[in-house]
Amino acid sequence: MSDALFVVLRKIALSLGERVLEKIGTEVVEAAPILSDFEHSMKQIEGELSILQAFIVQFSAQKVSDKAFDAWLDQVRDVSHEVEDIIDEYAYLTAQAADTSSFFKRKFHQVKNLAAWQRLPIQINQVEARIQRLAEMRNRYGISVGELDMSKKLQSANQLCMSDSAYLTDHSEIVGHADEIGRLKQWLLEEKQDRTLMAIFGMGGLGKTTIASSVYKNRQIRRTFDSYAWVTVSQTYQVEELLKEIINQLIDQRVSMASGFMTMSRMRLVDIIQSTLQNKKYFIVLDDVWDKDAWPFLNYALARNNHGSKVLITTRRKDVSSLAVDNYIIELKTLRHAESWELFCKNVFRASKDNKCPENLRSWAEKIVAKCQGLPLAIVTIGSTLSYHEFEEQEWAFFYNQLSWQLANNLDLNWISNVLNLSLYDLPSYLRSCFLYCSIFPEDYKIKRKLISKLWIAEGLVEDRGNGTSMEDVAEHYLTELTQRSLLHVTERNVFGRAKTFLMHDLVRELTSIVAKREKFGIVYGDAGITQVAHEARCLSIQRGTQCLTSLASSRIRSFILFDPEVPSSWIYDVLSRFRLLRVLSLRFANIEQVPGMITELYNLRYLDLSHTKVKKIPASFGKLINLQVLDLRFCYVEELPLEITMLTNLRHLHVTVVHDLQERSLNFFSATKFPGNICHLKNLQALIVSASKDLVSQLRNLRLMRSLAIMKVRQSYMAELWNSLTKMPNLRRLLISACDMDEILNLKMLKPLPNLQFFWLAGKLDGGMLPSIFSKFEKLTWLKMDWSGLKKDPISSFSHMLNLVELRLCGTYGGARLTFCEGWFPKLNSLEIADMEHLDWIEIENGAMMGLHHLEFVGLGNLKAVPEGIKYIRTLSEMYLTDMPKEFLESLQGSGSHIVQHIPNIHNFESSDSQAVNKFYFMPYLGKKYGPGATKYASTYWDS
Length: 945
Known about the structure:
The protein is an alpha/beta fold. The chain is about 40% helix and about 15% strand. Helix 28 (about 720-725) links the parallel strand 20 and strand 21. The radius of gyration is 32 Å and the shape is globular.
């Protein structure tokens, strides 16, 4: 490394002439002693960083009430950031030295950065000295970092105290969950001889312990059992202690002491419990179980004696709840609004008649209840705290506006943070940072699986496990783990059944944001009253009120994510000039018309999102962003990329589209990228939208990691070579092929099937007006769209073997007059669209067809005069959209055919010429699904522009 540095510095001098050679030559000689050890120092400091990070993760997860230790750990965190800064600065300078742009610009950078190269060894020495001082400081102030047992005991004691409190709840005060309690009682009282294992699971604070306690103490239930025991397991349990506690509750304590149970081995204790329960009908509650490790011992101890015994587990983790047999699992949900309001008023206004909220406080009370989002723990704790406050509007307004501060600092609300943070402290190191990252999103933001996966990967938070497993797969596994731990909740699944969007409970987000800020992981800016962000966090999320922000003091920012689209472009350009070591930059919806010049100097950048901006051109200097993994330019005005884009060999996802027709009724409703040069170099690409060319379809065969491909402007002369390339992509799941125009005829008759394809969109006229035989092989398809195929025969029967099909969209597909859906066809179909078939005058739907259909669309069917009679059989339909339908059809809908659709709660009818309706029913729902509800706030502004 040091030899390479000498060569670089020498070349700089030689290329700039003799006088400069003399000046720089002196500096190179002076730098020689430092640079000669540089390679060794960099290796050492990289090793130091890995140890520092592991140390911080290990001790950050411990809930220790020691201010001296916390202050010292904060200093360790600062040093870790300094080390990371050195490594990132080194990567930045190395990339800049390799810059192949303008000759003079390159030489200018190399001369300018000579001092920066010289500073690196000095900075390494300073960091090493600071690490030494931290070690001395630890000894000087007696800060202990090795004894975790005490903190674990304190944490366990605190956890037991919280569980005991829930156990002692007055069950007459329980609000909601009546169905769940009723189901539990039914299970406990049913006459079933086998031992039954039941489980209640859900996030912390939902009332799992309270509900379990209500049935455990129920006299009717108790009378049906001979023995019963309640054991709180907690995170820090010892198996022996659990077994002893069960024995103490099953056997008289004096007998257990006299028998020496307290000194017995684990296996002996198991035998004692089994023999004690062998001939009894028992009811055991295992409360607050965090893992399955103790179950093998407990399973053996809790005898299977065919006396109808019951075991009930409460847990936050889905994998633990899976221990329960058959369907004896209750997933606890948050309270409904009416239940939340009742519980809140019971706790706040308990001294007043009928627990009624005063009118002057009602608006603030409703805001506080909404903030709790149906979490009983939060409602009860905040309600109890407010019951001691003055019932004055100003005081309640102050409390609500300071709720984040209250959660972090008000001792009366510690209960909430203690319970919810237990899940955070239980996370393994690889999940903890990923979960903290989720807190940077706005309140109620639906986090997209693909988005968060790309961000985690760009930040280096996802492990590369190799062996054919992509980092995207690993990231999805992380998300699954977080949902199974009840920290994230799945709000939507795609047609493949995979989780698509996730939601973080708002109080969990608030508390996680507090931790992220304290640990200098990330900071959320969203308060118009603040004018400076001086906190040195690695991630900065700008959510609103940016026009008031005058100072950003931190130079350590690695992620800059903008959620406020009202930010002036001048502010964006100014801010970016301060963060040259960025890895993640998201300017989605930003009010910019050209790429900020500073972006092409961000050599460490891995993720760049300029979607939904007014950017029209990507500069050639983008070729310098050699570490870029994600480039998102959707809904921009960029139609062509520079040749230099082929230099970005680390690209994994390239999205560049311009949408012309939101309703997707035209053949080329969006424009794809014209890709220059040889795409073969981008071997890491997994997702691509591109315009076809003769050379490109051949080059695609080298992209063997491709998972999602959309290729536009396809000619028949390309098809054989294109399909040959597609067969070289074993992971291809999503495919869109669109013909170059309405006259181009595509022949797919001789092509081999793609067995793993799940999503297929084919746009263009098919040879002979016939569906090719290849469609009989698409058994795994869950999503199919056929546009302007020119088919002469009813295609529905040819799709009927696709039993996994969830969504079917047919636009101008068929030129005939009749479509038939037979009994038993499409059992999993959720959504059906039939559009722009000018001769179609009859749709036959037999009883038993599409029995799971929820969404139905008819668009531009000018010859369909009456509502299809068979719609009355589809009782699952929840919405029906009608666009540009003939007058006779609409009259039938209101008159003779009204009985056919009376079971459908939502029926929408509009004309495509109505821009307001298009915005409401197409564009805004698209944005909401794609980017979350926050995006729809600015949808009309964007589209009108």
